[in-house]
Predict the 3D structure of the following.
Amino acid sequence: MHKDESTNPSFTSKVGLIMAAVGSAVGLGNIWKFPYIAGESGGGAFLIVYLVCVLLFGLPLLMTEFIIGKRSEKSVYGAFRALSRNNRWQWLSWLCLLATIMIMSFYFMVTGWCLSYLADALMNAFSTANDLEAHFAHLSGSFPRMSFFALLAIIFTAFVLWFDVNKGIERLSKILTPLLLLMMIIMAVVVLMLPNSNIGMRFFFDADFSKITPQVILSAMGQCFFSLSIGLGVLITYGSYMPKKQDITATSLQVVLLDTLVAVLAGVIIFPAVFAFGFDPAEGPELVFVVLPAIFEQMSLPWLSSVLFFTLLCIAAITSTISLMEAMVAFLTDATAGRKHPLNRHSAVLITVLILIISSGLCILSVTGVKWLTFGNWNLFDIFDKISSCLLMPLSALAMALFVGWTLPKSAIQQELHTGHKRLSSTIAFVFMQIVRYLVPLAILAIFFNEVYHLIVG
Ligand code: PHE
């Protein structure tokens, strides 16, 4: 069956779309990745570079994806073809699919870690574990435990997608996303009342510009793409469900603001706690899984704070896995529509689940140290993570910016960015066009060349 006007799935409310997009954006990237990258790259200095990246690239690219989705009413597979009337941009949809599968492979694994930690928190396991480092090493070395929880995450996500988008994704996001924001604010207030919390706040907010190297800029840009879910077409898919009357500029601004607020709140929760209890802020990925449980044990309500924190982490992760899997499901139904064996939503969900079981399974095996799946110092998790956020996502974002900036007619962009106020709309469209035509492509290329130059020159 072709996806035409009447069968095209759609969210029923503007708030639903915003909550789903914020749910996608706010995820492990904000709560787990942002604090440790910031911790490793010098705190406040990184924060400033990150904010500049968000404004310069993040916001316009979010708008770019929404424009492509809303205008075409198609998934990533059909969107470029629908808007360009030829197949010249089709490779971009495959690039997006590849990156989406890579990200899902490790994202479900880490979501599994979160679920496993939530189970531990509920059973009060951190108070009896005398070595939390070993506790984490035990989890990341256990194939059965990791695969059990990753599978749980996959099945739950698939269950939500089993329903139509407005009954499953929209309804759940409207509950979970506000709940997540509320829980984050409560935790930040609790942590700020700890003694010595000002040292952590100073570390997070004081800017040391000598720490800003090209590597830091590249990782800030990668983090910005990852955190805003840019460059995979996930937001093209959500854009295709956007109610026709929704204003793209205002929606994108709200998503960017809320996503950045959560990343900053995560830093506000984590760093003061880290300093108050004398830990090292540059712990790496283990920050959330080793340092935080240790901190909770020393706080006044250990059980409640760890359950609250890991619930929050799980909610953040699941609303993101939903958007990732939805992008693939929509891709499959779109790609097979009108063919001999078109896939309906349910079979597309089942196929996606099968592919994920294999790809996450390989990723989990590799993390447990299986030799034939480790390459030098790198396991599949590191490889998928680096290739997708530092290469594929910026590359496809670059291509999407060129696509919208140079192939869509100006009138189409003006129409999509219409806010209801004529002068304002044309100013926004003008600035937007300059950014996606020149600034975004040049900046992404410059950062790439710089990286390659440093690789060669050393
Ligand atoms: N934005 C999510 C996060 O911050 C990750 C994600 C990336 C989700 C790309 C969807 C698409 O964790």
